[in-house]
Specification:
The protein has helices spanning 6-20, 24-61. By secondary structure, the protein is mainly alpha-helical. The radius of gyration is 25 Å and the shape is elongated.
Length: 68
């Protein structure tokens, strides 16, 4: 991963904990909320696509109207 070994990653993790240790829980909470909102948005788009596809299929299955 970017040429970083295990030792370098551990050093970076320790530095991050020292710098952001007190704020880390709130940062992670915000990140989690962001991920949840992103998933909700993706699910909404998928639902819209499914609805549109079902409507298109139903429209094709309607029998043609007879002219009288």
């Amino acid at each position: 991963m970017f040429g970083l070994g295990t030792t370098e990653l551990i050093i970076v993790a320790v530095i991050v904990l020292l710098l952001f240790g007190s704020r880390l829980p709130s940062v992670m909470r915000s990140l989690g909320r962001g991920v949840v909102e992103f998933k909700k948005g993706i699910q909404g788009i998928e639902d819209d696509m499914d609805t549109a596809a079902k409507a298109k299929i139903e429209k094709k299955e309607e029998p043609p109207k007879e002219a009288t």
